[in-house]
Amino acid sequence: MALRLALRGVTFCPRQRRLVGFVRFLWCLLICASATGAFAQMRIVDGDTIDVDGTRYRIHGIDAPERAQTCGAKSGAWACGKAATAQMAKLAGDGPVQCATVTKDVYKRVVATCYADGVDLGEAMVATGYAWAFAKYSDIYVEQEKLAKLRGVGVWQGPAQPPWQYRYARRMPAEQQAPDGCTIKGNISNNGKIYHLQKMASYAKTRITLSKGERWFCSEAEARAAGWRAPVGNNAARWPMHWVCSLSFGPFGCRYAPLLWPLSGLNGFVNMG
Fold it and tell me: What is the pLDDT of residues 87-99, one digit of tens each?
């Protein structure tokens, strides 16, 4: 507007008019770029972290594979970590990216919901299968994860270790305590891929060697979905206790089980706890 007022009433030759038009174009471009933040500096760190104008944002509600992480597929292992980083770069494009702060994590990073051209980056990453819904902290994208899993896209093409387990495995030795809430041992032996629950007699002697492809699971359903099975002969460990007592001691039931159990020959077969 100021430029238009300054030039009002001034007569220009054709060359000058072209020059004035070009100056107006540059002025408009500068104003538009400033308004949209097109000159903001942006860097993609990985599939769930971006830097915008010097601020690091951890995308809220998702957890993407780490850059060095690989995942399974019918055709073999693939670099899902690098692919997730590339997908975030594709979604963010050249910007602008706007982020709304949700909180700060333990690493003092800003946790935020970020958008590029109106697209929720977190939602898009989960929907395309390049990130897990980080349900431990938010269930906002759980439905998108279910749909991606049904479609078998991204990390859902085959066996894939969730990034929180991957990070834990890199921080700790192989034969260590189980990740928080994920106590099922996924062992690989001559008998195949077998998972072991804490209440099974085989649990204590089973060791997990992550370098061999063995892993921890948070649920039996997760273990079975990844291709592991329960050990033969341990299914009885999951029977209701009153069934076992009735089958073993008849009318005495569980009342005298602690006294009769050592004499039954079944001691150790079923976990009384």
Answer: 999 999 987 899 9
